[in-house]
Amino acid sequence: MVSSLLLTLAEAVGVVLQYVHYEHGWNLGWTFVSYMLAMLIVIGYIRLVSLTSLRHG
Question: What is the pLDDT of residue 57?
Fold first, then answer.
């Protein structure tokens, strides 16, 4: 997803500028995965709500 990539790139800028520091094995790769997972959950929820509202009027 483009939004996950853009968020990760924005965080990468923070890493380069030393505003963001990772600990405990966390890195930009895991950041991308966490943003992607969050986006997929939100999109799934929106689709579920849309389908439910279409059925119930």
Answer: 61
Give the chain's count of helices (H) and strands (E): 2, 0
Total count of residues recorded for the chain: 57
Candidates 56, 3, 4, 50; CA nearest to 28 is 4
User: What is the rounded distance in angstroms from the CA atom of residue 2 to the CA atom of residue 7?
Assistant: 9
Which residues span the domain enclosing 20?
2-55
Distance from chain centroid for Cα 40:
8
Distance CA 44, CA 8 (A): 21
Tokens 């483009």: give the residue. Answer: 2
0.85 surpassed by pTM: no
For the chain, the domain total comes to 1
Q: Whole-angstrom Cα distance, residue 36 to residue 7?
A: 10
